[in-house]
Design brief:
By secondary structure, this protein is an alpha+beta fold. It is built from 11 helices and 34 strands. A hairpin with a 4-residue loop joins strand 15 (about 225-235) and strand 16 (about 240-250). The chain starts with a helix and ends with a strand. The protein binds (2S,3S,4S,5R)-3,4,5-trihydroxy-6-oxo-oxane-2-carboxylic acid. (2S,3S,4S,5R)-3,4,5-trihydroxy-6-oxo-oxane-2-carboxylic acid binds next to loops. The site of (2S,3S,4S,5R)-3,4,5-trihydroxy-6-oxo-oxane-2-carboxylic acid (GCB) has 10 residues, from loops.
Length: about 675
Amino acid sequence: MALWLSSLVIGLYILNFTLALIIVNKDVKTSRGMLYPRESETREVRSLDGIWNFVCSDETNPTQGIRDKWFDDDLSKSRPIIPMPVPASYNDITTERSLRDHVGTVWYDRKFFVPRSWEKDQRVWLRFGSVHYEAFVWINGESAVKHEMGHLPFETEVTHLLKYGAENRITVMCDNALIQTTVPQGKISEVANDGGVTIIQSYTFDFFNYAGIHRSVHLYTTPKTFIEEVEIQTKLSDNNSVGYIDYSVAVNGTAANEAENALYVRLKLYNREGVQVVNTTSDGKLEGTLKVSNAMPWWPYLMHSDPGYLYELEIQLHGANEQLLDVYRLKVGLRTLSWSNTTFQINGKPVYFRGFGRHEDSDVRGKGLDNALMVRDFNLIKWIGANAYRTSHYPYSEESMQFADQHGIMIIDECPSVDTENYNQALLDKHKSSLEQLIHRDRNHPSVVMWSIANEPRTGQLNADTYFQFVANYTRSLDSSRPVTAAIATPWTDDKAGRYLDIISFNRYNAWYSNTGRMDMVTQRVIDEATAWNKKYGKPVIMSEYGADTLEGLHLQPSFVWSEEFQSEVFSRHFKAFDALRRKKWFIGEFVWNFADFKTAQSYTRVGGNKKGVFTRARQPKAAAHLLRQRYFALGREVDQCSLPEDLFTYIVDVGGSIKNESGDL
Ligand code: GCB
């Protein structure tokens, strides 16, 4: 190669590399609307959940369906269809390996009727609770909406696409491919197999890349001029006896454009007994503050005898001549969050978090919403005395957020960024968008007490500093009423992101991934690491993951890796560290990894999935669950003076007084 040519090639290479390193803080598109679909005097909601028709594209030809316009007619005309439940992940529904491990696009369709009565004077919206990972939607063959990002809702107006008093068809193409610029990241490669080549999806994160229409699909109506956004923020004063609700409402539609000043909202607040406690009207700006006397604060579970107290806020939109245009109702919890470099408080009381990292995961359904499972999970969370969980590693269903509000379970709300690396502009933009969508969806939930901007990002890498400065500051610009955290596993010595966070969370697996089996190398290491994080950044610290894989029913004494005894002993060694740390006020919480066993990609380190659950995948307790329950309630008793359940300790013997050992009473 001529010298000039090789210098040109090297020059271009360097330019390319440098460009990849430059990331700038660009504006990202913000989401609109998407209030949870609720019926009211002015709105109707219809579910499209049920059994849909399903076909799979060829992995080597993922765009064939688009080229051949499979959306133009029933899918059954293009390919043999199979039945597929919605909501559910499609992966574990059949017995086919090819569908479980499918990479690329799959298609769903179904028919539905739209009543004639929906034709007049209103709008119809189509809303998906979530589709993983990318969705393309057609109504009667016309493109309706496209959305990229799992675990988050999206919607579009379909008024003009529907046939009223007639049958309609909805078609969805879903693509599960993860690449370096998706959130989360993955890699797709073409690899030789016995018969030719095959497409392989790989990813570093430790949960199965379940895909499909994961949450409910709804059609709902709104009036022509309607309440599009409601944003509230609450606080308490006067010893928590007076509550304030700052509200702002955004309206869209015909009247909104024509006669903005004639619009106002009437707000009525009802307490739990249904008694109206506030009734007020806004000015034309549709924002203001409600004052609630004799306030009932929202308290976390076990922090108060009446946790999860919710009011109902009725928002009426009125137009010219006081005409009632739209009504939407929202549950509201009154609480104040505050934090400093040493503490996190709710309603002025310091919080000690005791909880879990979790997954939305179960047999057959994968990540599909299942109300039975959700209610069982909350029953277990309350049974064990936990007061919090992190939505590791993506946003959980809106139904579960509402449930957490009601039951007083605090949530560290995480966006879908896991193992983030190879920082680049496209990734940054999407990461910010995932947080924007998350905050937009969850900002009104009292249960959400913190935003987690990533799980185990590679925060030692080049560019991590600028990248996380942008992500953390963007999050704060969207909501400054909650602290920002990230669960970090990079050694504290190398980490470049912690200084942009309000609270440091760290994940570490002493006696499991490091010093496997060494019970004598847990306690001091946990104390030392938490202390080092605190010293480095001067912020409150949480241990956001610790644990050990445990095969239910495997008992080995003395404890040995994978046995139930081992899990209990690992926990106990951590408890000792946490108790030493709790004396230093800046250590504010402990989160076990994981609530329940869950499925992962196939690997020789995983026996049917990750088994670090305190509960099995079928939601039954392992031995360590009973130990954890005793600790969590004991903490609740010490920190928040909660009462203990009667069955917390098993009766053993009545020795007519206390039992003594060398160091005192047992
Ligand atoms: C972690 C990850 C989590 C894994 C866990 C494990 O640090 O955050 O996603 O499942 O470790 O068990 O390896």
